[in-house]
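One such given next:

>
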Amino acid sequence: MQKITFLFFLFVSTTFFAQVKGKITDTNYRPLSFVSVYLDKTVTGTTSNDNGEYVLNISKKGNHTIVFQFLGYKTFKKKVTISSFPFELNVELAEENVQLDEISISTKDNPANRIIRNVIENKEKNTDKFAKYTAKFYSRGLYKIKDAPEKFMGQTMGDFGGGLDSTRSGIIYLSETISEIKFQKKPKKFKENIIASKVSGTDNGISFNRAEDANINFYQNSVEFGNDLVSPISTNAFSYYKYKLEGTFYDKNGKLINKIKLIPKRKNDRVFNGSIYIVEDDWAMYGADVSVTGAQVNIPMVDVLHLKQNYNYANKTDAWVLISQSIDFKVNVFGFKFDGRFSSAYSEYKFSPKYEENTFTNEVLTFEKKATEKNAVYWNKLRPVPLTIEEVKDYKIKDSIKVVRKSKKYLDSVNKKQNEFSLLAPITGYTYRNSYEKWSFSYDGLLGNFGFNTVQGFNTSLGFSYFKRQNEKGKWWNAGISANYGFSDKRLRPTVFFSKKWNNISRPRMTISGGITTAQFNSRNPIMDLNNTIASLFYRRNHLKIYEKGFAKINYSEEIKNGIYFSSSLEYANRKPLFNTTNYSFAKQSNTEPYTSNNPLNTTDFVNAAFTEHKIATLNVGASIVFGQKYLSYPDRKFNIGNDKYPTLNINYTKRFGASNSELNSDLFVASLRQDVNAGNYGNLSYNLRGGMFLKKKNIALMDKLQANGNQLDFPLDGQLNSFGLLEYYKFYTNDKYAEAHIEHNFRGAILGKIPLVNKLNFHLVGGAKTLLMADKKPYTEYSVGLDNIGFGKWRFLRIDYVKSFNAGIKNDGLLFRLSMFN
C-alpha cells in the first residue's frame, strides 16, 4: 500500500504541477545537466537534473518565450503557445562557437588583461545594483560511493543506509532544502529561513545545505571555497593569475560575452583553474566554469572540486545575478571513492526589500515549523529541479526501509552482530548496545589508558560506564567507574562519575565525580601522557611531575545567553606528594641523562617533596564571552558558529579555602583573549593573550600558583598558541601577577608562493612571537619562523619551526617539529 501511495503522489504531483517539462540534450543526444531554464526577461526559472530533465512552473497559458542557457553552448530561445498543461518541450543545444576577433589579437596589450581590469574597476558599481535582495533558494546534496569496502580497520562498514547495490556502489546521502534568504551588502548581513528540508532515509529531515555556505562570490577578493582562495577578479589578482581571451560570443540579448581562461602563475597557489565569462561594457560576471585541487584548498582527501555558475540579466535592476550553481567533487582516501554534487538554484529575486530593524540578528538560520515534515505532493510542487530516476529510487527504498530499521526486531539483529565479543576486547575495549531502548554499556580496554611514568611505572586503567539517551533533543545521562593501577608503585586509584545533560539548545550539563587520581603540578596540563611515555622509555627523560589527589567534585556548565557560557565547579581534595619508584627505560643510563626526581622545584632532590600533604577546597566560577556570536537554530539544537570579527573573552575566579594552613588559601583572577583573524589572500593571524593576579601574595602550594605552559620536546603533540617552544616546564611560576602573549601569522602562499622553484613545494611560511611577564622574574620572549604544509602529494601534516628565546641575557634556539593538526 505504501508503494502504491508513493507512486500515486508522484504521478499526481507531476501531472498537475509540472506545467512545462522535457529533456535537454546536445546535438549528439547526450543529456545536459545543470542547464538554466527560465522565462525570457526574468530571473526566475529552473535547472535540468543529471539526466537533462527539467520542470518549469508557469502559472498562465498563452504565448511565452522560454530560454535555455548553459555555459559552452549557444543560448536557445523558444517561443511557445501553451493551451493546456502539462506541456512537453524537448530541446537540443549546440556548442557555442567561441571566436577570437583578429583585432583583439593585434592589440599591444593582452585583451584579457584589459577586460579583467575593467571588471575589477566596476566591482563596487555592479554589486551595488543588488546590495539588497530577497530570494528563494533551493539546494540538493548528493554523495555517491563506488566499490565501498566491507571493512575498514577491522570494523564492518555496513550498507551505508541501504543505498548500495550488489557492487557496493550507490547513493549514501541525498538531501534537499528550500529556503527564503535575505541579503544586505553594507553592513554585510545574511539571513536564511528554511521552509522545507528532507534527507533520504531519515525521520528528522534536517539537511545541512545552507545558502550562506553556497554563496561563492567572485566579487570578493577572497573566495571561500573549501579554503580562502584568491578570486580571479580580486584587486590583487594579477599577482596570482595570467589571463587569455579564448574567444567571444553574443548572448540572447545581443550582449558580447568574453570567455577568459585563467592561468595560475604558480601551480600550488590558492587559485582557480578554468574559465570565467565576462559581459562586455557591463564588466559583470556572466558565468564561471572553474576547478581547484585538494592541494590548493588544503583538503588532502579531495582530488578535485569543480564549480559552475550561471548568471542572468535582471531588467529591473540592470544587474547580472546568480541563478544557478553546482559544486562537484571527487574524494579518494583509504580505499573509499566518493563523488558528489551540491547544486543550487535561485529564484523570485526582489531587489528593493524593506527590512525591519530586527530583520538581521545573530540568528542567521531558522527552520519553519514542520519544515521537515513536508510530503511528496509538496515537494513535487515546489522542487525546481526534478529528481533523476536514481534519486527517486533512493527516496523510495530508504523511506521504506527506515520504518523497518527502527523496529525492535531489526535493531536487535544489528546489535547482536555489533555486540559480538572479540578475543581482543579485553585489550581494546568493548561496548554492548541496545539501540531500541537507547542505552549502552561499555568497558574501557587496557590499551586506551596505557602509559609510563617514573612514579607509577607502567600503568593502565580499567573502566565501566553506562549511557542512556532519553530523547533526540540532547537529553542523556552517563555514569561510570574506573580504576588506574601502577605496576611499580603497586597502587590502585579508583574514580567514579555521574554526568547528565538536558538539551542541545543551552546544553546544561552537570557532573559529579570523586575518588583518587594523579594530577600534574601545572593544572593546565602542558605534558601529554603519550609525550611523556615516549620521552621516558626512549630517552630517559621524565618531564611529567605529578601528585596524588583524593577528591570529591561537582561541575556545572551552560550557555546562559547567546555567546555567554557559564561554568563552575566545587572540589574538596586531599593532596599528597609522590616519589619516583622506578628507574626503568629502554635507553641505557650510561648513554643518557639519569631520571630526574618528581620534585619540580628541585629535580635533583629525591628525598624532599615540593609540598606537604594538605586538604583544601576549591571553587571555580568562570564565563566565556563570544562577542557577536552567530548561530543556527535547528529544530532540535542550537549550533554556534562564532564570529571571526571579534575575539573570545574568558574570565575565571578561583577561591581556595578550608585549608588547615591559612597561607594555602588564595583568591585568583585569570582572563584570556583569543582570536583567529582571516586575512583573506594574506593568510591567517591568530593571537592568544592571558593574564592573572592573586588578590594577596601568600606562600601557597606550587600547584595553585600561576604557571606558563613550557616545552622541552623536539616533537611536541600540543597546541602552538598555548605554550612556549623552548621554556622549561616548571621554570616560571608566581603567586603574584603574570601575563603572557602569543601571536602567529600563517602567510599560506602569500610569500613563498611568489618565489620561483620554492613555490613548487607548496610550503607555507609561518611567523610568530611570544612573551611572558611575571612580577618576580625577568621577561621571557620567543621569536619563531617556520614552514607549514610540509609533506608529499595529499599528505601534508608536518610543520617545522626555528625558535629563538631570550631571558635575563641568556639566548637559546632550537628546532621544533609538529603535526599541523595540533596547531
Summary: The first helix runs from residue 2 to 17. Residues 1-18 have pLDDT under 50 and may be disordered.
